[in-house]
Design brief:
The structure is a single chain. The chain folds into two domains: about 170 residues, Rossmann fold (3-Layer(aba) Sandwich); about 200 residues, Dehydroquinate synthase-like - alpha domain (Dehydroquinate synthase-like, alpha domain), CATH 1.20.1090. It starts with 12 loop residues before the first strand and ends with a helix. The strands form two sheets. The protein has a six-stranded parallel sheet, with helices on both faces. Helix 3 packs across helix 4. With about 375 residues, it is α/β, with parallel strands linked by helices. The protein is built from 14 helices and nine strands. The mean pLDDT is about 95.
């Protein structure tokens, strides 16, 4: 029987090569007259900030730029950006960049309208009312933050990561232009792309998946498996970049509706305590967690293997399912990633403390297709070591 489910998402999605050129019209459609542009610190130096400024200025739209976003953003950036938005009387927010910039932008929109501090809204459904209108423009095919209701931050004083989760964080518009991903270097292309794959696989195998979310997650797996290698090794291939961004979008839709699983619970403390980038942490942990989860979702992992191009006909179910793990390991290797958590200063004596923090990241664990204990987590960290 089909389970009872709901399905939510960004209010509007615009996808296509060159679609950034219509930004001013979209800003006007949202009845925004003075947006805050939130952009990654490094991305702001590439000329994209000037391009966006030119599009808005040509349409007579005034704006303010906040360009201090860094990877794995500390929560203080959201408060600082919101203070700027309030000071300049901004009535909307445009987030430009990867997941860090878009997460900060979404949080700024919430704080500027609800007042208080970012920490007040961490957790699930802590936001009392809608924020400023939000337009998200991804420049990586990775997090899917342009279509999710989550913003994740590092709390340096606590050495952990926490998320703000509310339907009010869904953007009013996700504007996806594949041309913006052409200049992304091979390493971040690989890490963000594998992050998207992680979202797709986790949301497909989540016990909270529905027929609607599974459709997006499985297609995302296929698109990413088929196109990520090309994007890493032939970054100017626009056709592959287009399909990768579409895969990342679908993975984000799947994630938003089905949730992620234990990979994220295990990766959060690596980011919070050791500064491991989110996409890379997920990449390192993905195959070990999949191998652990196999007994809880053999049929689904067999589907994942097939979506990734593996031939499963005639194989026993467990062998077909394990091909998904091998396919992921091969893709990671082909994308040139060979990192382990040891490379970031993690010691074996850190495993119990990391597992303690991971156990507090409860929602992904609740979605996991196989119950995971602290000892299981320690064993997975050991495998990723």
């Amino acid at each position: 029987m089909t389970k009872t489910f709901s399905f939510t998402g960004a209010k509007k999605i615009v996808f296509g090569n060159g679609s950034l050129s219509a930004l001013a019209g979209h800003v006007t459609d949202q009845q925004v007259q003075n947006p805050l542009i939130v952009i990654d610190k490094n991305l702001a130096q590439t000329g994209l900030k000037e391009k966006i400024a030119g599009l808005l200025s040509a349409a007579g739209i005034k704006f303010t730029v906040y360009d201090k976003v860094v990877p794995e953003p500390p929560i203080e950036l959201a408060d600082e950006g919101a203070a700027l938005a309030i000071k300049r009387k901004c009535d909307g927010v445009i987030g430009v960049g990867g997941g860090s910039a878009m997460d900060v932008a979404k949080a700024i929109a919430i704080i500027a309208a609800n007042k208080g501090a970012a920490a007040d809204y961490l957790g699930l459904n802590k936001v009392p009312k809608a924020g400023l209108p939000k337009i998200m423009i991804p420049t990586t095919a990775g997090t899917g933050s342009e279509v999710t209701f989550t913003a994740v931050f590092v709390r340096r004083n606590l050495q952990k990561k926490e998320g703000m989760n509310s339907p009010y964080l869904y953007p009013e518009l996700a504007l996806l232009d594949p041309e913006l991903t052409l200049s992304l270097p091979p390493a971040p292309t690989a890490q963000t792309g594998l992050d998207a794959l992680c979202h797709a696989i986790e949301s497909y195998t989540s016990i909270n998946a529905s027929p609607a979310s599974e459709m997006f997650s499985l297609e995302a797996i296929a698109l990413i498996a088929e196109n990520l290698r090309t994007c890493v090794h032939d970054g100017k291939n626009l056709a592959a970049r287009e399909q990768m961004l579409l895969g990342s979008l679908y993975a984000g839709i799947g994630l938003a509706n089905a949730g992620v699983t234990a990979v994220h619970s295990l990766s959060y403390p690596l980011g919070g305590k050791f500064g491991v980038g989110h996409g890379l942490a997920n990449t390192i942990l993905l195959a070990p967690v999949m191998a652990f989860n196999l007994p809880g979702a053999l049929e689904k992992f067999a589907d994942v293997a097939e979506a990734m191009g593996e031939v499963t006909d005639g194989l026993p179910l467990r062998e077909a399912a394990f091909l998904a793990v091998e396919a992921v390991e091969a893709l990671i290797e082909d994308c040139g990633i060979s990192a382990s958590i040891k490379d970031f200063g993690v010691k074996e004596t850190d495993f119990p403390a990391l597992a303690d923090v991971a156990m507090t990241v409860a929602r992904p664990l609740e979605n996991n297709p196989r119950k995971m204990t602290k000892d299981d987590m320690i064993a997975i960290y050991a495998e990723a070591f």
